[in-house]
Amino acid sequence: MMRVDITVNGRARADDVEARLLLVHYLRDVCGLRATNVGCDTTSCGSCTVLLDGASVKSCTVLAAQASGHEVTTLEGLNRSDGLHPVQEAFRQEHGLQCGFCTPGMVMAAVGLLADNPDPSEDEVREGLEGNFCRCTGYHNIVRAVRAAASGGRA
Amino acid sequence: MSTRWFGQPIPRVEDERLLRGAGAYLDDLGHDALAAAFVRSPHAHARITDVDVSAALDVEGLVAIYTYDDLPDRLAEPLPLLIPHPTLTHGRTPYALARDKVHHVGAPVAMVVAEDRYLAEDAAERIAVRYEPLPAVVGIAAARAAAHLVHEDVPGNLAARMTQSTGDVDAALAAAPHVLSLDLAIERSASTPLEGRGVLARWDAEARRMRIWSSTQTSTGVRAAVAAKLDLPLVDVDVITPDVGGGFGVKIMHPWPEEVLVPWAARLLARPVKFVEDRREHFVASAHERGQLHSVRVGFDDDGRLLGLDVRFWHDHGAFIPYGLIVPIITSTQLLGPYKPGAYRVTFDSLYTNTVIVTPYRGAGRPQGVFVMERVMDAIARELGLDRTTVRERNFIEPHEMPYDHGLVFQDGRPLIYDSGDFPASLAKLKQLVGWDDFEQARETARAEGRRIGIGLACYVEGTGVGPYEGGHVVIETSGKVKVATGLTSQGQGHQTVFAQIVADELGVPLDDVEVVTGDTRRFGYAVGTFASRAAVMSGSAIALAARAAKEKALRVAGDALEANPDDLEIVDGVVRVVGAPGAEISLGTVAVLSNPLRYAFDTAAQAATQFASGDPAKPPVPEDDEPGLEGRDYFSPMQSTFANGMHAVVVETDPDTAEVKILRYCVVHDCGTLINPRIVEGQIHGGVAQGVAGALYERMAYDDAGQLQNASFMDFLMPYASEVPSSVEIDHLETPSPMNPLGIKGAGEAGVIPGAAAIASAIEDAEGIVLTSMPISPSELWELRRSKETG
User: Fold this and answer.
1) Mean pLDDT in chain A?
2) Domain span at residue B275?
3) Residues of chain B whose pLDDT is less than 70?
4) Which of A124-128, A149-153, B69-73, B679-683 has the lowest mean pLDDT?
5) Domain count of chain A?
6) Does residue B425 belong to any structural domain of this protein?
7) Helix axes B423-434, B388-395, angle to 10 degrees
8) Do B20 and A79 touch (CB under 8 A)?
9) What is the ipTM of this complex?
10) Contacts with A, B 551-590, CB within 8 Å
11) Dihedral sign from CA coordinates of B45, B48, B52, B57
């Protein structure tokens, strides 16, 4: 067991974990934050995407130990009491989700993308989300949602 | 007036919860549960000579290890053959854990239960299984050759041979002015939902009741199977479908070995147990579909009209056949699409191979059938020098010929009779949408720029809403809130939204007051499941009928209270009122109070229903043919399926150097009858189209000759990202209402995927001037085809 100090959704935590514990399992099983899903185990699907110091990473391929001393934001970290985060709201308005399993990772990837590029073109959104699978929507409305969130942010 | 919800493209009621991360998928449940992991066969075909668990026993946190020899009673028997058929003469199903032999890579050999999944896998990898490898049968050619057998007692690897026919095909072909022969192939792919399979079981030892959560498309099917396998009364088994991360067909298969083993272990250990499939397991231990070879002879006249169609095909169903012949039966019937074939004969063989089992994947045999028929149409056009749309038009079933009886038996055992559709109108819409008649100009412009573009199309008909039945329950609570339940399950389709739209309209209540539960046997015990684009047709209709029953009672009870004729009442925004008499009204919540004669009041509102407050002393409190409460329950069981249809057109550009295929335009004309929620229908089409493109250009199951799946991960299986799908899908709807159900609806879930491979093949052929006979096609395969064309 080893000690990790990780700030999760703005709250500093200290936990004793096994060295092999993946960040996604730390978030789900130790922190009880279960929005972040596991879809592949091979860094391919992006269902487990979270922000590590503001940059989107796939938490199935990061050890909890590697996140020690850093800040992690999960989908739950976007939640506010007065409605949805603009990216979440855009996904709702544009029907950017069906089964919802990829959605937490997709929203976090979109948040990371918009942090880097606040006004992406359609091609930039598609390239930016390469790395996140969705099997339900054909991505059509996801791309629209991300662009809508971007233009909402500008307004 | 209240809003009419039916037909409105409203945002989904499911989404806010899912977007906040409050979805509860299978792995989000059971934090206190033990974890199961499986030792799986690394061989496609082998005899098990020894299983040595000794090295695993000292793994900390290990709770139990089970092999076949531990299985009692009915659990030791083969798993069920779910859909028997008279022609399925050699149906074989697996054991829950391998007995003596393994028949495909990924077959479960031992189950390990431990305190968590990390520890369960630690123990699993220490279990030493000794195998004596046997020759593997991989692919249709090897299965037909039958040099080796998958099952010793199944000669020729043949599970079933089935023929259907109408008319005299041999005579029609002999007399036809033109006859063509085609050999056509489609490779394997798979549903591949983002969430794999999973099951959690809790045994209540005091109540002797089992509660199971499964990521399934049929909770009632799982319930019946577990009750039978564990010898439990059905009433003591609950199966609950939590949020499900996609299904696309693979989760209609049941019971999976894990679905019976996990509840059994939970009862044995008196602890909750959970199994969550990982991605590699999903590739090698769930199910695939699509792999078929077809050999066709078609006879036609000088105008391109079909005179006779003779189809022979071979279906690779993998190592076992628990789901029966549904996929090849669908191919053999739905191949006909919107066309009149003349005389028709189809024969298929369903063959064993040492690969993962085959069960329906979205489209379920139709993408193969449509590929075959549309290749035939394009071949006729090429042979006669006709426009491809002209050949199709000349063979369409005309609207005045509906209902059209093909004289065949469909997948539900019922006659293949199309109920509705206007195929000429659909094609006219498609030609206009894609600009079919102006394409030559675009081709010339592109050619002048050194670019190759091509256009293709494909048409399909899809039998949706198959039986036997679904039911719905609508209860109006004393709060005025409406609680709706149906037994079939949801995997992201938006059922809560569309069923709420139906109920809000039927009852005249605000949408926000309606709450829908699906796939929970505690709420509704009679159901079939979600497959064959049937949820809206079957449960939507049943729920509408149940809501009408509840409304009829509400008007009756309100009529008594308001001293008015029920025929003079209407319900608006949850209030029953006398038409044309302002102020004469009563809320549905109060009607619900009055519908249930009480002895004991539980709140102020309920006092109105107590024995000294209401009731006619001359009548019993509950009339003889009535029930207390304000609710309706009804079932919908149509005579046959309802047939949706659609047509897709695609414009592609092929790279002259790399042979990469880029989709420039993707156009869809779609007729699923009356639309409940156009936004949701379009979302289904978008997703289906993406899977169709995937099956045409990217996805295949790459088995080697030893039966090893070479691409059993998302690193190697080319599922499209946002960067690979068409950037726009242009959709036009035609709404010809179905006469088969009270809402006029037809299924929409699978449609988008069905003609993808056929339409894209047609477009690539058009761009390249070559003939395609198999899909999917990779750039290297297209490049080879070009080279062989150039070398003649």
Assistant:
1) 95
2) 32-134+197-244+251-285
3) 1-3
4) A149-153
5) 2
6) yes
7) 160
8) yes
9) 0.97
10) none
11) positive
